[in-house]
Please model this.
Amino acid sequence: MTTHYIDLNLLPDPEFSDAHLLSALMSKLHRALAQLRVDDIGISFPRHSLHPRTLGKVLRLHGSEVGLTNLMAQDWLRGMRDHLHVTPPAAVPASAQHRTVQRRQFKTNAERMRRRRMRRKDETAEEAAAAIPDSVKRHPALPYVQLRSASSKQTFCLFVVHGPLQSEPTDGTFNTYGLSSGATIPWF
Model:
């Protein structure tokens, strides 16, 4: 149950952009949640915007007071503390609404889709190119954070969608990025 929250506010930095710092922060959070094997901590970006497209400068962690305290007792913020202002765990306001915060994946790379088709259908590069034109690429208008996969070492964009507001919470689990297509987080 998400009864408490912690805000991680990015501080201005002359050497690193907000996007770079948020990417580093999300990478560290992902590793910590995976290592701890917890599925009861969710995230949101209370200052996200579609115009301009940004997740903002605040990463909010949601969970129980015990769960958040356990996470923050780990040394997962090493190297980031000088770039953040971290609030202590606080109770969620009783008037808070709720919403999902989830990942949205897009087929944005025509070349990768062609390589996959070549493997699946045993086609030549020319056949795959004819079946999948460059125009198939999508350019989502969603905010995102750029991450690097620990397993494949490939860089990818984690697009984030804040779902519609709801008056009642929905219980469920969160993935190792703190996102869920079903479980809600408090929104205030």
Notes: The first strand starts at residue 4 and ends at 10. The mean pLDDT is 92. The chain has four helices and eleven strands.
